[in-house]
Fold:
Amino acid sequence: MSLSKINKKITKEYLQQPENLYFERKSGKTDLKIVANEVMALANALGGIVALGITDKGTIEGINKYGINKLNEAQKIVSAYLKPTPIYNCEIIEINNSKNEIDNIILYHVEPSMNKVIRNVKDEVYCRQGDSSIKLTYDQIKSLEYDRNETNFENQIVWDSNIDDIDTEVVNIFKEKLNTQDTDISVLKARGYIRDIKGELKFTNAGMLLFGKNPSIYFPSARLRVIKFEGNDFQIGTSMNVIKEKTFDKNLYRILNEAREFINSQLREFSYLNSNGIFEKHLEYPEFAWYEGIVNAVTHRDYSNSGEQIIVKIFNNRMEISSPGKLSGFVTLQTMKVK
Structure:
């Protein structure tokens, strides 16, 4: 039988299930600021339920023994301690505790925050990961801000950049596609790729990645690395089987073109006898397939992530393309569905 008027799936058995990505229990004696942080963590992830008055082991102890003030403060702590206040409902549930006494617990029904990162008054940010709430680092907070569109990575200024960073050849190719005779500066300014900051022209992050001569100076991980191996597995030490390796670290247009040329030079060529009795030559992988994979990796890579670069691995029996970053928005491996 459901205990909640808000969520019909909340039964006594549900409250005693193991904690997970969407569900957290807290003893009634828990500091209410910690409870608020749990609400924050769910709001910054996929939402869920925080149950106050149940121990980590699932024992329903209730909160009445901690006094009426605790019950009253528990209903106000989220709006008092978090900024902005997430969308949530605070529901008091009457229930028999482990001693079979009539008691109360509180359920916080938390909605995911779609457009804002929720913080506490100390400016700390927590986010739900697995069955735990994790305090985020500065880089993780920035990544969450980008994910929520609270901060736009592409429009941020590369403060150390200047007009000498422009790759004029790539800009000219861009202008040809636009069929415009405007100056390089006018074209880039009109589309937000460079901005005038107190009389000095500065690239935005997007502008640097697309039209900079050497974006990796400012974004060290904005590279694409191609590694060819002898065999079907990666070996180390005295069995190291890397036979060719090259890193591409210019703007995205040049990375794509130079990487395509290099990969084509590393692929094996096979001959086949066609139905007309004529030998035809084919590369081991069709270019349209792997090149689309690389374009997707370069286009969708999380450039705010300062970790690993894009890596293409060529083995004898396969090609692997990996791009750093996490799944976008609220998508997780658990919520992905294959149709």
About this structure: The CA atoms of residues 154 and 223 lie 17 Å apart. The longest helix spans residues 252-266.
